[in-house]
Design brief:
Elements: E1 19-26, E2 33-36, E3 41-55, E4 58-63, E5 67-70, E6 76-80, E7 86-93, H1 95-99, H2 104-114, E8 118-119, E9 123-124, H3 131-143, H4 152-169, E10 174-175, H5 181-200, H6 207-214, H7 218-229, H8 233-251, H9 256-262, H10 268-279, H11 283-288
Antiparallel strand pairs: 1-7, 2-6, 3-4, 3-5, 3-6, 3-7, 5-9, 8-10
Helix pairs in contact: 3-4, 5-6, 6-7, 8-9, 8-10
């Protein structure tokens, strides 16, 4: 399937080594990173080009060599910047794995971080006094993904702990200032709406129904949705449906019209138009591509 769950519940790495490494290349104008969330923390570094990454309501313009830290449970995504291409690498880690060693220092600092009581700087640049060293340390951890060192997993753990140790030593791990209660509620309600869309996209959905799921007025819901997702609810729903249909074209023998109907489209011409807008080709050409 071309559509990934909005709330990631897959295991990053494996039970004994719950750390996942990812490298993503996006061409100019292509979608950068679909909005989603997971309970693990994530460090993400842009290695080529530039893009906008959003964590909750905060947006950061990243160019090559810069990074962001994404706390567990935060809704986040990426968007094209000036139609530029972008390549980025990420390491996603279960903090419980680092805490589980029984080390009291790890529990003292990492457990509160896991619980959202402490925070780290979100945007890492070389302009910050601490930036060059910590970005180099992060780069070292990311490079371990391709290592054939038999001690690779141990080195990853040491590298992550050393990174956190330097953040602590530099006073960069601080008490988290809670956001406005209304902002936190809006984020949680929006997550519920995204999960609702994921479960019911194949049938007719209206903005009114989605607003009811969020417990908001239709106008307020539309404004909140646009703030977090950078598009209208219907535009997001249609793109989700198109990506689902694209996945079905590749992993099933459904006809194009059957894939459209299964994905929630009852107007075939409209489906073709939206498909072209998202993928730059017809559904038939997409299915037959090499």
């Amino acid at each position: 399937m071309d559509v990934k769950p909005l709330r990631e519940n897959r295991l990053h790495g494996n039970p004994g080594f719950p750390v996942g490494f990812y490298r993503i290349e996006r061409t100019a104008g292509e979608s950068i990173l679909d909005n989603h969330w997971h309970e693990e923390i994530e460090f993400l570094m842009v290695t080529y080009g530039k893009a906008i990454f959003q964590i909750g309501l905060a947006s950061y313009e990243l160019k090559a060599g810069e990074a962001i830290f994404i706390p567990g449970g935060e809704l986040h995504g990426g968007f094209p910047l000036e139609e530029a291409p972008c390549t980025y690498e990420a390491v996603v880690c279960d903090l419980g794995w680092l805490i589980g060693s029984g080390d009291q220092m790890a529990k003292r600092y990492l457990l509160p971080l896991q619980r959202g009581l402490l925070s780290l700087p979100s945007h890492w640049t070389a302009d910050a006094e601490w930036g060059p060293k910590l970005l180099t340390q992060l780069r070292t951890v990311l490079d371990l993904e391709a290592s054939d060192d038999p001690a690779r997993e141990l080195r990853v753990k040491i590298g992550l702990l050393a990174l956190f140790a330097d953040l602590i030593s530099r006073g960069l791990m601080q008490s988290k200032h809670p956001g406005e209660p209304s902002e936190r509620r809006a984020a949680e309600r929006l997550k519920n709406v995204l999960l609702f869309i994921e479960a019911h996209f194949a049938r007719r959905l209206t903005v009114r129904e989605l607003a009811d799921v969020a417990g908001m007025s239709e106008g307020h819901f539309s404004r909140v949705f646009r703030t977090y997702m950078r598009q209208t609810p219907i535009a997001y729903l249609n793109r989700y449906r198109i990506r689902h249909a694209a996945g079905r074209l590749l992993d099933s023998d459904l006809t194009i019209s059957e894939a459209a109907l299964e994905s929630g489209f009852d107007n075939f011409s409209y489906f073709i138009k939206l498909f072209r807008a998202v993928y730059g080709c017809t559904p038939k050409a997409y299915r037959n591509r090499p």
